[in-house]
């Protein structure tokens, strides 16, 4: 089974052409924003294995070249080896994917499944997926709802996708650069992107004044508390997240007014479903599902995401240490700091959870 088949893009019974193609005919995909990174280990592996063993996936172009869909790092590693005079095969095994629509989705899906992405790569990936899915649905190439297609493509919940898209649309350019530099995580960025641009700039200016490079979720909340900054609700760009969260979108052609069945309750004997009892069932939800509870839900999600981001950061620190990029002292200091911050976030999460229970009447 090849990569595309394992990702569900083609039926397993379909056999796609595999051809040896010279690296000079393999063109990097302009839509590939994923970081190539250090290729030292990959080049050593290619030399040890006697060449590239895993097929690349490419899309043919009219000029006789091929656009890379999956395999950018392998192709670049071979090019560098050849430039260094290494004895390595210049023709790489490539699967040919002639369907452009599938190729666009595969570029995103293969990377979302096969590698750990930086926070900014996650944001760009969500934005790119949004663009591709929206266009392909309008062209009739995808029959699923946008929400379903995005979830399947990115392997993420609709809420996570919505937050990433909101960051792309709402975060000011200078703070986007912070994400690119690895100084701002997803949870903190989402908290910031709900602020007005001038408040975002004020936060950044404050941190720059004190020489603080990394901006954490705790830093953002402290700034908001100290300056009385709230969520920006009048910016039309903020509606982006509503494309992905909330109730499941209705399928095209489905009835939009499902509650239009007043005869159903009348057909049920009053003894079985007294109207008073029905009203009582709604009262508990009305009691706690107010603006305050919704804010608690939002805070719960944000803090939970932040704790998860800390866990991701711990793995990043470990990988840097394991690769010899940081000293043991740096590894211990950074790990201790992230664990301490995660402990604080989990404490905060527990407090929010207790507040939500009280609102629901489950003390």
Separation of termini?
53 Å
How many domain modules?
A: 3
Rg (C-alpha, Å): 25 Å
Series of H and E elements:
HEEHEEHEHHHHHHHHHHHH
Q: Biggest sheet, in brief?
A: 5 strands, mixed
Task: Tell me the strand order in the biggest sheet.
Answer: 1-5-3-4-2
Q: Which ranges are low-confidence, i.e. pLDDT below 50, for 5 or more consecutive residues?
A: 1-14, 236-243, 245-286
**Count of helices?**
15
DSSP helix fraction = 55-70%
Descriptive labels:
single chain; 363 residues; alpha/beta; Conserved hypothetical protein from pyrococcus furiosus pfu- 392566-001, ParB domain; 3 domains; five-stranded mixed β-sheet; 57% helix; globular; disordered N terminus
What is the structure about, briefly put?
The chain is an alpha/beta fold. The protein has 3 domains: 3-98, Conserved hypothetical protein from pyrococcus furiosus pfu- 392566-001, ParB domain (Alpha-Beta Complex), CATH 3.90.1530.10; 116-243; 291-359.
SSE order and pairing:
Blueprint (H helix, E strand, L loop, with lengths): L2 H4 L11 E5 L3 E2 L12 H10 L6 E5 L5 E5 L1 H12 L7 E6 L3 H15 L4 H20 L7 H9 L3 H13 L2 H8 L5 H8 L3 H13 L7 H11 L35 H5 L7 H14 L2 H32 L5 H32 L4
Parallel strand pairs: 2-4, 3-5
Antiparallel strand pairs: 1-5, 3-4
Describe it.
It is built from 15 helices and 5 strands. It has 363 residues and is of the alpha/beta class. It has 3 domains: 3-98, Conserved hypothetical protein from pyrococcus furiosus pfu- 392566-001, ParB domain, CATH 3.90.1530; 116-243; 291-359. Strands 1-5-3-4-2 form a 5-stranded mixed β-sheet. β3 and β4 form a beta hairpin. The longest helix is centred in the C-terminal third of the chain and has 32 residues, at 291-322. It is globular and about 65 Å long. The protein starts with a helix and ends with a helix. The model is unreliable at 1-14, 236-243 and 245-286 (pLDDT under 50).
């Amino acid at each position: 089974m090849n990569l595309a088949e394992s990702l569900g893009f083609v039926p397993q019974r379909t056999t796609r052409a595999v051809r040896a193609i010279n690296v000079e005919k393999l063109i990097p995909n302009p839509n590939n924003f994923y970081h190539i990174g250090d290729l030292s280990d990959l080049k050593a592996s290619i030399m040890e294995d006697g060449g590239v063993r895993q097929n690349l996936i490419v899309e043919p172009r009219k000029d006789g070249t091929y656009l890379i869909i999956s395999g950018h790092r392998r192709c670049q590693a071979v090019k560098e080896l050849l430039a260094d005079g290494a004895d390595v095969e210049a023709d790489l095994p490539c699967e040919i994917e002639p369907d452009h629509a599938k190729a666009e989705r595969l570029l995103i899906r293969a990377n979302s499944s096969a590698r750990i992405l930086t926070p900014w790569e996650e944001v760009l990936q969500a934005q790119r997926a949004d663009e591709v899915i929206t266009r392909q649905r309008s062209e009739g190439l995808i029959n699923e709802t946008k929400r379903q297609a995005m979830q399947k493509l990115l392997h993420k919940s609709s809420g996570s996708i919505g937050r990433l898209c909101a960051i792309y649309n709402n975060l000011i350019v200078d703070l986007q650069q912070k994400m690119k530099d690895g100084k701002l995580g997803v949870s903190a960025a989402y908290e910031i992107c709900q602020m007005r641009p001038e408040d975002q700039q004020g936060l950044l200016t404050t941190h720059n004044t004190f020489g603080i490079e990394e901006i954490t979720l705790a830093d953002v909340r402290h700034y908001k508390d100290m300056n009385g900054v709230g969520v920006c609700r009048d910016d039309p760009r903020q509606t982006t997240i509503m494309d992905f969260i909330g109730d499941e979108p209705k399928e095209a052609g489905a009835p939009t007014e499902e509650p239009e069945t007043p005869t159903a309750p009348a057909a049920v004997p009053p003894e079985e479903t007294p109207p008073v009892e029905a009203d009582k069932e709604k009262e508990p939800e009305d009691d706690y599902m107010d603006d305050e509870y919704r804010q608690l839900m939002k805070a719960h999600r944000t803090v939970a995401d932040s704790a998860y981001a800390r866990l991701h950061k711990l793995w990043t620190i470990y990988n840097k240490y394991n690769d010899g990029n940081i000293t043991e002292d740096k590894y211990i200091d950074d790990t201790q700091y992230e664990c301490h911050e995660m402990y604080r976030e989990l404490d905060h999460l527990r407090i929010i959870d207790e507040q939500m229970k009280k609102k629901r009447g489950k003390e």
